[in-house]
Amino acid sequence: MNDTLKTFLTRKTGVIGLVLLALVVALAVLAPVLYPASPWEITGVPFAAPGEYGMLLGSDTLGRDIASGIAHGARVSLLIGVASTLAALCIGVVLGCLAGYFGGWVDMLVMRFTEIFQTIPNFVLAILLVAILNPSLWTIILAIGIVSWPPLARLTRAQVMTISTREFISAARCQGQSTASIVLRHVLPNAISPIIVTGSLTIATAILIEAALSFMGLGDPNNMSWGFMVGAGRTVIRQAWWMSVFPGLAILITVVAINLVGEALNDALNPRISRS
Amino acid sequence: MTLLSIRDLALDLPAGADRPRAVDGVSFDIAPNEIVCLVGESGSGKSMTAHAILGLLPPKVRPGGGELMFEGRDLLKVSEAEMRALRGAGISMIFQEPLTALNPLKRVGEQVAEAILTHDPKARDAKARAVALFADVGLPDPASAVRAFPFQLSGGQRQRVMIAMALANNPRLLIADEPTTALDVTTQRQILDLIKKLQAERGMGVLFITHDIGVVADIADRVVVLRYGRVVEQGPAAAVLHTPAEEYTRHLLAAVPGRGAPAHAEGRGEVLLEVAGLMKTFVTKQGFFAPERRVIAAGGLDFRLRRGDTLAVVGESGSGKSTLARMVLRLIEADDGAIRYKGEDVRLMRGEALRQFRRRAQIVFQDPYASLDPRLKVGESIVRGPMAFGTSRAEASATAKRWLERVGLGAGAFDRYPHEFSGGQRQRVCIARALALDPELLIADEAVSALDVSVQAQVLDLLAELKAEFGLSMMFITHDLRVAREIADRIIVMKKGLIVEQSGAAELFDAPKAEYTAELLAAVPGRDFFDARAAV
Known about the structure:
Shape of chain B: globular
Shape of chain A: elongated
Structural class of chain A: mainly alpha
Largest interface: A-B, 21 and 33 residues
Low-confidence stretches of chain B: none
Distance between the termini of chain A: 15 Å
Radius of gyration of chain A: 22 Å
Strand order of the largest sheet of chain B: 6-7-8-3-9-10
Structural class of chain B: alpha/beta
Oligomer: heterodimer
Number of strands of chain A: 0
Strand content of chain A: under 5%
Number of helices of chain B: 21
Mean pLDDT of chain A: 86
Number of strands of chain B: 20
Order of helices and strands of chain A: HHHHHHHHHHH
Radius of gyration of chain B: 25 Å
């Protein structure tokens, strides 16, 4: 574990990503302390530019504090990104493993099922699911999870397929290890690093999908969200750029940070790179 | 007159490598119309030297001094454009693995024509010249061979294509980097003969890189022995091979397997493994309308292995020998026939019975780089076997350490990762992993084929010792008759899924019954040389 950490810390981009991500997380955690009032509350004059009336990033069309919205929105974005990716991983990795390791008709069945999901445009399906299930935090997580798993399943399947033909898997079978033990202890650990990297990209994509859903007004009406802020501010972007630019920057920084961390993690998890 | 003159060549490795320089102070000459063999073990810097000549050094490796004079020009100083004009025209190269050196999506004739057009863009007869070259390198039916894709050719044929491509622009110097290492013995023999013949016809200089002293004996005019990036000894082939001045050269010669009498004899023990009428056919579909391709990997195999014996299964690639090993362990399912282990049919075993059988019969694979889980410490790889059979972790760790000690790696190896070991050391780890389960039958599937000769000798010695110490029975799969001679009591010769000969080791070497066996024996590299040496 120490070696992994060491390699991670030698990757400059990874450290930058980690610092940015830590800042976003800190913002999310400290939101109720920094801005105890609800982000929906009107606290000042509408259309206040950044710095005016004691509002760091200005206010929106109704006079709500943008900075407060961003802090509270971080909670929603991170929660949805991580939770929906975990859901996608649970579905995708399990199905991919089954298809890749057992092959034959299991593979056939799982892959045809996956293809059904892949033929439907992601975003359309997500909108449909949220619209049917009523927008709330959990239905959004569920919807994003359901549209995000197919690429993970395909990747896992391809990884598992190549790795299970390797000789050390035959060696493990010859050692008398059970199928479950082979898959969990030999196949998956060797397959996992591209899955982790793709998983981190999936978090980023999930955050973007959530932002897009909120932008279209399909977000959870009880939670402030970056996408909603961009959507609300877009009509007045020429008069008040700060309303959409700051939440947009928040999305950008978070997504970039997650990707940087994912890449560095990939290097760190590979013992050949981390030890040489 | 010399064609290529290397003086004090030094190549610097990046910081953190196992030594500061890949090669240091290497000097030798190649005359036109001469074959110079550069011989050494892996890591000796022989390939690096060859790549330096063509300016193909890996990134981070830099020339650190000396000169490479080719026809009056220093190749270390010429511009990239000059070097490009030289590559494939003045100097060309053939590689070890002909499959990866050819573009899989292009017809081989086009690839050769392209090599011609690169250096002579106006050549209108490139296609015709390719056909002529194919005839020169002995490809059957050259007119249709040019239309083949690489995957439609055998390994030997692909290497002939590579040679045709290398010769396309009449190079003055041909560099051959282990061109026969990936080939079967009989094919190797043909390719060696071909290179020798073409060299004499065209008066080329050839720099031939190999780790096999047998090959050197067959083809070299002069020999340069390399070790740790330095020249140990060089001189005319006859002198270096017959009266080596250096200890290391003698050591290399002594490590070549398969000399001396096959002293082993079959035991009279109980029959441990009996294979009867074993059949396996692989069917591959080549497209919707193309007929299926059928390859017979086992066409009714019958043999027995007695307890305490070593049975060598010898054959060229595609003979079905590895499939046989995998069928015995049920890693591949046979189509028909019986595999009886102590009278019990392995093919009918299910679940727990199969698991118990696999504990008794262990395998060591060919490629020590692929057969260890790269993400696990080697100790962990070993302990998982005994733990799968209910041994406690503490006890399994103790067993693993004992075995690592026994195979000569020391208990310190327990906490290291596979990539920290050399090929030979990894193979020792694999042996330890197999033996930690306390098996009765050990199957070695080309277990020493990927190793250097001297390392090969060490691993063979280790296996012989372990066999004597623990009364192991062994099934030893190999393509190398020399290795079989070193270790086997009984030998099976396979060809295209059939057993062409099976007899005691001494008998097979002294009086081979099948024509194919005689062919294999004749193809062993350096046979004349070593026979002559043994006779003295």
